[in-house]
Amino acid sequence: MNKAITILICDDDEDDVYLLKSVMEECGIKNPIVYAKNGLEAIANLNSPALQNRIGLVLLDLNMPKMDGREVLKAVKSDGLLRRIPIVILTTSSASEDIDNCYSMGANCFITKPASYENFNDTVKTLLKFWTQLSRLPVGAN
């Protein structure tokens, strides 16, 4: 179990962030959560001394202002101290070039956000169960 990890949610869409929070509460996810509205905030959180060695999972939207998710992914996966943190792309894009590029840059998972509320909930529940209960993360992933 990875109960102690902090989850970093990087998404500028307030409705999607609200839905993620709601599903997490519904699932009983007790992990600490940090939010970033853009890529610059995401990188700042990942490099923050207060969060060092705590962030163990990143849910990353691709289309954000200031620094998009692609740039965040590239920066994290090219950083020797951060690259082991699992990054799940959770975005509206279903473009094959985005999928291919994200996996080429080291994304651990690519999920296109479902359009319906019910499908979104089911997808997030499955995602969270996998990453917080079923998967085994490396010690000191970050």
UniProtKB/TrEMBL annotation:
GO biological process, one term: phosphorelay signal transduction system
4-aspartylphosphate modified-residue sites: 61
Alphabetized Pfam families for the sequence: Response_reg
Keywords of this entry: Phosphoprotein
UniProt domain Response regulatory: residue ranges: 6-128
Descriptive protein name: Two-component system response regulator
Superkingdom classification of source: Bacteria
